[in-house]
Protein backbone atom coordinates (compact mmCIF):
# COMPACT_ATOMS: atom_id res chain seq x y z
CA UNK A 1 0.00 0.00 0.00
CA UNK A 2 1.08 3.45 -0.76
CA UNK A 3 1.21 6.04 1.90
CA UNK A 4 -0.69 9.16 1.24
CA UNK A 5 1.36 12.37 1.54
CA UNK A 6 -0.83 14.84 3.39
CA UNK A 7 1.38 17.83 2.64
CA UNK A 8 0.54 17.74 -0.97
CA UNK A 9 -3.21 17.89 -0.33
CA UNK A 10 -3.14 20.87 2.14
CA UNK A 11 -4.29 24.18 0.77
CA UNK A 12 -1.61 26.83 0.16
CA UNK A 13 -3.01 29.29 2.75
CA UNK A 14 -2.32 26.90 5.67
CA UNK A 15 1.45 27.33 5.55
CA UNK A 16 3.40 28.25 8.70
CA UNK A 17 4.06 31.97 9.33
CA UNK A 18 2.14 35.19 9.84
CA UNK A 19 -0.05 37.01 7.41
CA UNK A 20 0.40 40.66 6.55
CA UNK A 21 -2.68 41.63 8.56
CA UNK A 22 -1.40 39.87 11.70
CA UNK A 23 1.98 41.58 11.36
CA UNK A 24 0.37 45.01 10.91
CA UNK A 25 -1.80 44.50 13.99
CA UNK A 26 1.27 43.63 16.09
CA UNK A 27 3.16 46.66 14.74
CA UNK A 28 0.19 48.92 15.57
CA UNK A 29 -0.04 47.56 19.13
CA UNK A 30 3.71 48.03 19.68
CA UNK A 31 3.43 51.59 18.30
CA UNK A 32 0.62 52.43 20.73
CA UNK A 33 2.63 51.04 23.66
CA UNK A 34 5.65 53.11 22.64
CA UNK A 35 3.50 56.25 22.41
CA UNK A 36 2.24 55.62 25.93
CA UNK A 37 5.73 54.95 27.34
CA UNK A 38 7.68 57.88 25.82
CA UNK A 39 6.18 60.66 28.00
CA UNK A 40 6.80 58.62 31.14
CA UNK A 41 10.42 57.99 30.15
CA UNK A 42 10.94 61.69 29.41
CA UNK A 43 9.47 62.65 32.80
CA UNK A 44 11.66 60.09 34.57
CA UNK A 45 14.73 61.51 32.82
CA UNK A 46 13.72 65.03 33.87
CA UNK A 47 13.32 63.91 37.51
CA UNK A 48 16.71 62.24 37.37
CA UNK A 49 18.45 65.28 35.86
CA UNK A 50 16.94 67.69 38.40
CA UNK A 51 17.84 65.35 41.28
CA UNK A 52 21.42 65.01 39.98
CA UNK A 53 21.79 68.80 39.67
CA UNK A 54 20.34 69.35 43.15
CA UNK A 55 22.60 66.73 44.71
CA UNK A 56 25.63 68.07 42.85
CA UNK A 57 25.03 71.64 43.97
CA UNK A 58 24.32 70.68 47.60
CA UNK A 59 27.48 68.56 47.63
CA UNK A 60 29.54 71.40 46.13
CA UNK A 61 28.26 73.81 48.77
CA UNK A 62 29.01 71.40 51.63
CA UNK A 63 32.52 70.72 50.28
CA UNK A 64 33.13 74.48 50.09
CA UNK A 65 31.83 74.95 53.63
CA UNK A 66 34.08 72.16 54.92
CA UNK A 67 37.10 73.60 53.09
CA UNK A 68 36.39 77.11 54.43
CA UNK A 69 36.24 75.88 58.02
CA UNK A 70 39.31 73.63 57.63
CA UNK A 71 41.45 76.32 55.95
CA UNK A 72 40.00 79.15 58.07
CA UNK A 73 39.42 81.13 54.89
CA UNK A 74 36.22 82.41 53.29
CA UNK A 75 34.88 80.40 50.37
CA UNK A 76 32.65 81.53 47.53
CA UNK A 77 30.22 79.37 45.57
CA UNK A 78 29.31 80.92 42.23
CA UNK A 79 26.33 79.82 40.12
CA UNK A 80 25.76 80.56 36.45
CA UNK A 81 23.23 79.13 34.03
CA UNK A 82 25.79 76.61 32.78
CA UNK A 83 27.68 75.57 35.93
CA UNK A 84 28.51 76.15 39.59
CA UNK A 85 31.97 76.22 41.11
CA UNK A 86 33.57 76.92 44.48
CA UNK A 87 36.76 78.79 45.37
CA UNK A 88 38.67 79.58 48.56
CA UNK A 89 39.93 83.13 49.07
CA UNK A 90 43.58 82.16 49.69
CA UNK A 91 46.22 84.83 50.42
CA UNK A 92 47.82 84.38 46.98
CA UNK A 93 44.49 84.61 45.15
CA UNK A 94 41.50 82.36 44.57
CA UNK A 95 42.05 78.63 44.92
CA UNK A 96 39.40 76.83 42.89
CA UNK A 97 38.00 73.58 44.17
CA UNK A 98 37.72 70.62 41.84
CA UNK A 99 34.66 69.24 40.09
CA UNK A 100 32.27 72.06 39.20
CA UNK A 101 28.63 71.11 38.71
CA UNK A 102 27.78 71.18 34.98
CA UNK A 103 24.11 72.19 34.78
CA UNK A 104 24.19 72.54 31.01
CA UNK A 105 25.33 68.93 30.58
CA UNK A 106 22.37 67.78 32.69
CA UNK A 107 19.95 69.80 30.58
CA UNK A 108 18.50 71.72 33.51
CA UNK A 109 17.67 75.40 33.94
CA UNK A 110 19.03 77.11 37.04
CA UNK A 111 17.71 80.28 38.71
CA UNK A 112 19.77 81.34 41.75
CA UNK A 113 18.58 84.10 44.08
CA UNK A 114 22.06 85.68 43.70
CA UNK A 115 25.08 84.98 41.51
CA UNK A 116 27.27 83.83 44.40
CA UNK A 117 27.24 83.03 48.08
CA UNK A 118 30.07 83.58 50.58
CA UNK A 119 30.82 81.12 53.35
CA UNK A 120 32.74 82.52 56.31
CA UNK A 121 35.56 80.55 58.01
CA UNK A 122 33.10 79.80 60.82
CA UNK A 123 30.80 77.98 58.36
CA UNK A 124 28.12 80.66 58.50
CA UNK A 125 26.67 82.25 55.40
CA UNK A 126 26.46 86.01 55.80
CA UNK A 127 25.47 87.21 52.36
CA UNK A 128 21.91 87.07 51.09
CA UNK A 129 20.36 84.37 53.21
CA UNK A 130 18.26 82.42 52.81
CA UNK A 131 19.89 81.64 49.49
CA UNK A 132 17.98 79.56 46.99
CA UNK A 133 18.71 77.87 43.70
CA UNK A 134 15.68 76.75 41.67
CA UNK A 135 16.47 73.87 39.31
CA UNK A 136 13.99 72.85 36.60
CA UNK A 137 13.60 70.72 33.50
CA UNK A 138 10.45 69.86 31.54
CA UNK A 139 8.06 70.90 34.30
CA UNK A 140 10.00 69.19 37.09
CA UNK A 141 11.16 71.78 39.65
CA UNK A 142 13.26 71.46 42.80
CA UNK A 143 14.85 74.05 45.08
CA UNK A 144 18.05 74.05 47.12
CA UNK A 145 17.71 76.38 50.11
CA UNK A 146 20.73 77.43 52.16
CA UNK A 147 20.17 79.07 55.53
CA UNK A 148 22.40 81.58 57.29
CA UNK A 149 23.74 78.76 59.42
CA UNK A 150 24.97 77.01 56.28
CA UNK A 151 22.37 74.28 56.36
CA UNK A 152 21.18 72.82 53.07
CA UNK A 153 17.46 72.12 52.88
Number of domains: 1
Give the low-pLDDT segments: none
Question: What is the tally of beta strands?
Answer: 8
The radius of gyration is: 30 Å
Structural class category: alpha+beta
Shape estimate: elongated
How would you describe what is shown here?
The chain is of the alpha+beta class and 153 residues long. The protein has one domain: minor pseudopilin epsh fold, CATH 3.55.40. It is built from two helices and eight strands. Strands 1, 2, 3, 4 and 6 form a five-stranded antiparallel sheet that branches. The protein has a three-stranded antiparallel sheet with strand order 5-7-8, covered by helices on one side. Strand 1 and strand 2 form a beta hairpin. The chain is elongated.
Task: Detail the topology: elements first, then pairings.
Elements: H1 20-71, E1 75-79, E2 83-90, E3 93-96, E4 101-102, H2 103-106, E5 109-112, E6 116-119, E7 131-137, E8 140-146
Antiparallel strand pairs: 1-2, 1-6, 2-3, 2-4, 5-7, 7-8
